[in-house]
Amino acid sequence: MATVNYCGFRCLKSRPWLQNVRSYSSSSVAASCSLNSPHPSSSFDDSEAQGPTTTATTTSTSPATPDRSQSFFPKRGQTLELVCETLAFKGKGVCKVADTGFVLMCDRALPGERFLGRVTRKKGSYGEVQKINTISPHWDFVDAPCEYASHCGGCKTQNLLYEAQVKAKEQQVHELMTHVGRFSNEDLDFSMVMKPIVSCDIQFHYRNKMEFSFSTKQWLPRDAMKGEQGGENSFALGLHAPGFFDKVLNVEKCLLQSEAANMVLEVIQNCWRDPPLGLSPYDVRAHTGFLKHLMLRTGRDAKTGSQELMVNFVTSSYKPELLEPLIGKISAIPEVISIINNVNTSVGNTSVGEEEYTLHGKSTITEILRGLTFQISANSFFQTNTHQAEVLYKLIEDCAGIRGDGSEIVLDLFCGTGTIGLTLARRVKHIYGYEVVPQAITDARRNAELNGIHNATFVQGDLNKIGQDFGDEFPKPDIVISDPNRPGMHMKLIKFLLKLRAPRIIYVSCNPATCARDLDYLCHGVAEQNIEGCYQLKRLHPVDMFPHTPHIECVCLLELA
Ligand SMILES: C[S@@+](CC[C@H](N)C(=O)[O-])C[C@H]1O[C@@H](n2cnc3c(N)ncnc32)[C@H](O)[C@@H]1O
Fold first, then answer.
1. Does any domain span residue 317?
2. Catalytic residue numbers, as ranges
3. What is the CATH number of the domain that holds 248?
4. Which residue, 352, 369, 386, sits at the end of a domain?
5. Binding positions for S-adenosyl-L-methionine
6. How far is the C-alpha of 281 from the C-alpha of 232, rounded, in Å?
7. 40 CB neighbour count, 10 Å cutoff
């Protein structure tokens, strides 16, 4: 087990980039989502920021002692030869400076890759480098099929063999569970508790939802820059360039979405800039322009199983006449059954509008999951990889270990549109679902009705703000399912669960760092608050829901100790 000091703070010296997980979790406010992502907020001071100095040729073969790493401080602008050892959160490569163990994180460095990197930032006991050029490629190199792979922020690991991608994700979960979750290697005996990662059989075209942005500023990778800036030629429709809120990489085709969605994207790309149409992209700095986002959602007809598509234009004002020429073209694609317009007049750049209009066809599309039919509106949460959601939900059901005699009560926390609870409802007595988004609760109730499920109650409420009376309105559950978003569970909810002592908790997580922290609290307690843990981690399944991206899902089974 990792060392624990008397304040309950874990010793993470050997994993400096994890330090902020601890400081975050001790704050008891699950509000940040930048866990263990080394996003240094400070850079070197001026004396250090003098630009390139010496070039230190290093390798990372020997992990050094923490003491030596503390005496080594690279300078901003310094060039180092590094080897990437492994991947950490957000897919950043972990590289250590030879003979010091000093950790430098590098975006787009892949395990085994030897490269020249320039130090850009330092925070505490680790730093960040920008890759200048690769000296020798990483192990398991494959050609990336997508032309945007090396620039787009979406798929960062497309040219790493898929088997190596999942192995790196599995290692990351193991690291976090031991160093943040404080589970020892014996606790995590692979065959007993931590299961091998579940790969995704479909590695492309798996996303049922993609959101593209319109922009006045097209982002061009450095090698494509020809001094072209500004003017109409620089309009873009695509994905935000990593780190830029105002620049967009123009994307003609995305290999993660369905072929039908790519057809729509192509039609729109071919005409939206035509001057006679009078369409302008929204300028996020000047707050002018009309087109903000294009969201494409792919579902399936419940009867025929054939693909159906929703196209959602997010605009800054309601001017349907401006969209008419585009609607004419895309409604000719047989899969398009719904064209929606979300009007978002705020200066914020979210895709949820204050008003929603159906411009063509239906207001929802359908999707089938574990034999149930779900109606999905433009802004409802729905698992974005339907194929792998089948696998995920099957694992959840296995972990729930439902007796099947219809006697059990299930509490579905962070229920979204109710999908997990509804897929279990037929075998239990009652489902109680809690969720903060009112629209999702409306959808959950409608989905229950649509599937003839009458033993499910969905309640809108903020699980970060539960009071002492939370729990009065439902009987003690036999099974709790908790599927929070990235920040994980609030300390209030952790305390509630530790007091509730339900026999089983199934914790579903999309962020292994907060997952490890919350499992630690539930199993080992919260020492700084004198709270004892009362659960045992029985099973942990990492699941790859999003090939080529750094995201990792986990399904964890906890039983009352
Ligand atoms: C990862 S999604 C899970 C949704 C659902 N379980 C599923 O599988 O489709 C997390 C959900 O938690 C909801 N949520 C986020 N913060 C919340 C809070 N403070 N209280 C209640 N629900 C919250 C989000 O709106 C979202 O629907």
1. yes
2. 510
3. 2.40.50.1070
4. 369
5. 383, 414, 435, 483
6. 10
7. 17
Instruction: List the end-to-end C-alpha distance of the chain, in Å, as a whole number.
Output: 19
Q: DSSP states of 256-294 as a string?
A: TB-HHHHHHHHHHHHHTT-GGG---B-BTTTTB-SEEEE
Q: What pLDDT, in 10s, does the model give residues 460-487?
A: 999 999 999 999 999 999 999 999 999 9
Better-predicted residue by pLDDT, 180 or 50: 180
Same domain, 323 and 237: yes
- pTM score: 0.84
pLDDT for 226 equals 57
CATH code of the domain containing 133 = 2.40.50.140
Q: Does the structure show a pLDDT above 50 at 39?
A: no
Ligand 1: residue whose CA is nearest its atom 13? 414
Instruction: Tally the domains of the chain.
Output: 2
384 CB under 6 A from ligand 1?
Answer: no
- pLDDT computed for residue 58 by the predictor: 32
Determine whether the shortest distance from the Cβ of 374 to ligand 1 is under 6 A.
no
Do residue 220 and residue 128 come from a single domain?
Answer: no
Does residue 381 have its Cβ closer than 6 Å to ligand 1?
yes
Mark whether 235 and 336 lie in a shared domain.
yes
Q: Is the pLDDT of residue 25 over 70?
A: no
Tens digits of residue pLDDT in 200-244: 999 999 999 999 999 998 988 766 655 554 444 689 999 998 778
Neighbouring C-alpha atoms within 13 Å toward the C-beta of 164: 17
Structural domain range at position 307: 209-369
In a domain, 416, yes or no: no
For residues 214 and 352, state if they share a domain: yes
Please, are residues 503 and 538 in contact by the beta-carbon 8 Å criterion?
no
Taking the centre of ligand 1 as the mean of its atom positions, its distance from the CA of residue 452, in whole angstroms, is: 23
Ligand 1 binding pocket includes 436 (Cβ within 6 Å)? yes
Give the pLDDT mean for 484-513: 97
